[in-house]
Design brief:
Bound molecules: flavin-adenine dinucleotide
Largest sheet: 4 strands, antiparallel
Structural class: alpha+beta
Number of helices: 11
Radius of gyration: 22 Å
Helix content: 40-55%
Order of helices and strands: HHEEHHHEEEEEEEHHHHHH
Oligomer: single chain
Distance between the termini: 13 Å
């Protein structure tokens, strides 16, 4: 890949994903938001069945899509195209699909064959849907992971977990949870280890679905561990110093570009609606100065959407070429999350009072938008990490311009 022009097969996939977003995600988005759950009939749609299966790891038969050929889902470009279109459809519904989600990279990298076999077992059961969750955030440790206080105490051949996790996506429905805990809080990031906890383990309670402003279909949950005993064999191979922490960072580094792409897709959807409203009401406003301002803003946002997409795609291009994409990932995540909030606010302004009715999708986009900033590291943290990274690399300009 030497340019940002999509190949013909990529363009075909993009069109296919867009169709899926409009036909299979959009019609269920409002109900999912109201129910804070997956609406009846959503998962049973044949294209959703295919997509859900494709998102599973290769060990479970997933990892590729067969539509206009055989497409490898580990291709970073394909992932970005998919996530952008799913954001255009409905990001919370996409994030709530059954599967391993955020837990997958760490399990793939640090799970032993027997651990993977145990975690994968329920996913082989075709008669029901299964989820895994990734439990890092705590009431007093969000951005600063090294401050987490959920503890893991070694006792003979077990570990005993104590603590509370919150804002855990799909936590309530998860069959397995990857839990970040510390063996010694004084060690900071060096004390962090990751453990597999199965639903139903005594003294592990996935207690409540937090009543969040947006991303409600994701069932953002609180998990409690009170003297929760798990076998030593549930410790992922993160017993090396800092490997637990690094596993989290590796996961974020992998998912941040896709969060950015989802934000971009949502922003596109909101801007499209704003644009349609402007066209519909254009004649009415044609004499007004407001009309001119809105048009100028629309054009400016369209330009920034293009910049956002180029930033996202540059993360994939660098990765495919085996180059460091850390700076681009930070920039894409921060830029797209900020843009989606601005565009959703603008679209609400354009729509006026109609946008604040409960059935308006603009109102839903607006409530979802903030999550893109929070998820997997806030914009502030991206900017902080970018600055540190640029101070570290010898040629900062090279890190910025690929
Ligand atoms: C939809 C959604 C899904 C989520 N899913 C998961 C999940 O599956 N698993 C999971 O573990 N977590 C999940 N989270 C939690 C998410 O990772 C945290 O919200 C995020 O890490 C930020 O933590 P915090 O909200 O505690 O904010 P804090 O860390 O308390 O930060 C508060 C504010 O201070 C700023 N700030 C903090 N530190 C600094 C600093 N050093 N310099 C400058 N500014 C700073 C932040 O930018 C932010 O604006 C989810 C969150 C959302 C919204």
């Amino acid at each position: 890949m030497t340019s940002f022009q999509l190949t013909r097969p990529q363009q075909e996939l993009q069109a296919e994903f867009r169709g899926l977003a409009v036909k299979c995600f959009r019609p269920f988005a409002g109900t999912a938001d109201k129910l804070a759950d997956l609406p009846p009939g959503f998962l049973e749609q044949p294209p959703i069945v295919v997509l859900t299966h494709a998102l599973l790891p290769p060990e479970l038969g997933g990892g590729w899509l067969a539509s206009t050929g055989r497409h490898d889902l580990s291709d970073p470009f394909l992932r970005l195209i998919l996530n952008e279109e799913m954001g255009y459809g409905d990001a919370p519904l996409f994030a709530a699909l059954p599967g391993l989600g955020l837990a997958m990279p760490i399990l793939q990298a640090f799970g032993t064959p027997s651990q993977k076999q145990r975690v994968f077992a329920p996913f082989l059961d075709q008669s029901r849907h299964c989820w895994a969750a990734f439990a890092m955030s705590e009431p007093s440790a969000g951005s600063d992971v090294s401050a987490l206080s959920t503890s893991a105490r070694k006792e003979k051949d077990s570990y005993v977990l104590n603590g509370t996790k919150w804002f855990i996506g799909n936590g309530l429905r998860a069959d397995w949870v990857v839990v970040f805990a510390t063996i010694n809080p004084r060690l900071g990031r060096f004390g962090i280890r990751t453990f597999l906890v199965e639903r139903g383990t005594p003294e592990f309670e996935a207690s409540c679905c937090l009543p969040t402003m947006g991303f409600r279909a994701l069932q953002i949950s609180q998990l409690k561990f009170q003297e929760c005993r798990i076998p030593e064999s549930n410790l992922l191979r993160t017993h090396d110093t800092k490997a637990g922490f690094d596993g989290g960072i590796m996961t974020f580094q992998q998912f941040r570009p896709t969060v950015a792409a989802m934000a971009l897709g949502t922003a596109r959807a909101a801007l499209e609606q704003a644009s349609e409203l402007v066209q519909q009401n254009g004649a009415r406003h044609s004499a007004a100065r407001r009309w001119q301002n809105i048009r100028e803003n629309l054009d400016f946002f369209k330009l920034r959407l293009r910049v956002a997409r180029l930033l996202c795609w540059s993360t994939a291009r660098l990765k495919i070429n085996g180059k460091d994409n850390f700076a681009q990932v930070c920039m894409a995540k921060a830029f797209c999350a900020e843009l989606v909030m601005e565009i959703c606010a603008f679209a609400m302004d354009v729509a006026g009072v109609c946008a604040v009715t409960p059935d308006s999708s603009l109102e839903r986009f607006f409530r979802n938008a903030k999550a893109f900033d929070l998820l997997e590291g806030t914009g502030d943290m991206q900017r902080l990490m970018l600055t540190k990274h640029l101070l570290r690399v010898s040629e900062p300009n090279e890190a910025l311009i690929d």
